């Protein structure tokens, strides 16, 4: 992992936070920063069944010093770009579970995520309480986001996570499997950043619970998350924990 100094991180953080606060809504016309030149991104790997593992995954192997930082993809794309730049500057790779309507509004973000070497997956079409829906409604939520991912990237994405729930109901688990996702991606560390508790609280929550194999739930769209990420990545590096994609975590 590339080591970044505290001064460098603060510089990036100030620039990132300034961009987020200045742009406000997603239609403010913020300029996307170019991605470093690299070969065109391949489509996300097709979801595959992992032998010996349950249908709902909360964490990876505890025997290796690797963790997965997973982000629910929604909200201001300027915040998303700031978080992607911060992760990439530290040599980290993340997993983004995207909301389908967010992809409709910002279709370029799908390719941006993949071009950065990150995982991209399905977080339903409208980000509603999918576990509380009828079978037809839940199927439309899962399949609708999968269709958008396929149209934008050539794949339904690497992972599925239910919206507004840590775990899928038996019905949603079955529908996700029918859509092509053999596993539901849950998590064992919830940053609670969506409650806007402040960056120090987000940092304490993540670092107090994370360990080998952890899958962490975080969110795009929150300034606290942008502000907390440098300290989180720096401490993971100090502990020798590599932030990898979920696909890498389970490989």
* Low-confidence runs: 1-40
Would you count the extended β strands for me? 8
Tally of alpha and pi helices: 9
Instruction: Determine Rg (CA atoms, Å).
Output: 17 Å
* Oligomer classification: single chain
- Helix and strand element order: HEEHEHHEHHEEHEHEH
| Helix content bin | 40-55%
What would a concise description of this structure say?
The protein is α/β, with parallel strands linked by helices and 251 residues long. It has helices at 6-23, 77-89, 100-105, 108-115, 135-153, 170-179, 199-209, 223-239, 246-249, and strands at residues 56-57, 66-73, 95-98, 119-122, 184-185, 189-190, 215-219, 242-243.
Please tag this protein with its features.
alpha/beta, six-stranded parallel beta sheet, 251 residues, 42% helix
Describe this structure in words.
- Helix content is 42%, strand content 12%.
- Strands 2, 3, 4, 6, 7 and 8 form a six-stranded parallel sheet that branches. A two-stranded parallel sheet has the order 1-5.
- It is built from nine helices and eight strands.
- Helix 2 links the parallel strand 2 and strand 3.
- By secondary structure, it is of the alpha/beta class.
């Amino acid at each position: 992992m590339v080591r970044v100094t505290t001064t460098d991180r603060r510089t990036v953080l100030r620039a990132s936070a300034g961009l987020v606060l200045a742009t406000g809504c997603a239609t403010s016309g913020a300029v996307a920063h170019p991605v470093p030149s690299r070969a065109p991104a391949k489509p996300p790997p097709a979801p595959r069944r992992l032998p010996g593992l349950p249908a709902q995954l909360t964490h990876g192997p505890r025997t290796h010093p690797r963790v997965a930082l997973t982000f629910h993809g929604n909200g201001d794309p300027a915040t998303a770009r700031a978080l992607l730049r911060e992760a990439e500057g530290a040599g980290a790779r993340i997993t983004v579970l995207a909301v389908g309507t967010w992809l409709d509004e910002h279709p370029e973000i799908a390719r941006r995520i993949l071009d950065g070497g990150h995982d991209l997956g399905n977080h339903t079409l409208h980000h509603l309480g999918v576990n509380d829906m009828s079978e037809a409604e839940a199927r439309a939520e899962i399949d609708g986001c999968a269709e958008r991912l396929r149209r934008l990237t050539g794949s339904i994405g690497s992972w599925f996570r239910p919206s507004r729930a840590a775990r899928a109901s038996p019905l949603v688990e079955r529908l996700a499997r029918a859509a092509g996702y053999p596993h539901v991606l849950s998590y064992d560390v919830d940053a609670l950043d969506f409650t806007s508790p402040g960056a120090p609280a987000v940092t304490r929550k993540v670092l107090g619970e994370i360990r080998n194999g952890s899958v962490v739930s975080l969110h795009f769209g929150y300034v606290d998350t942008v502000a907390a990420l440098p300290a989180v990545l720096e401490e993971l590096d100090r502990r020798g924990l590599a932030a990898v994609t979920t696909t890498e975590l389970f490989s």
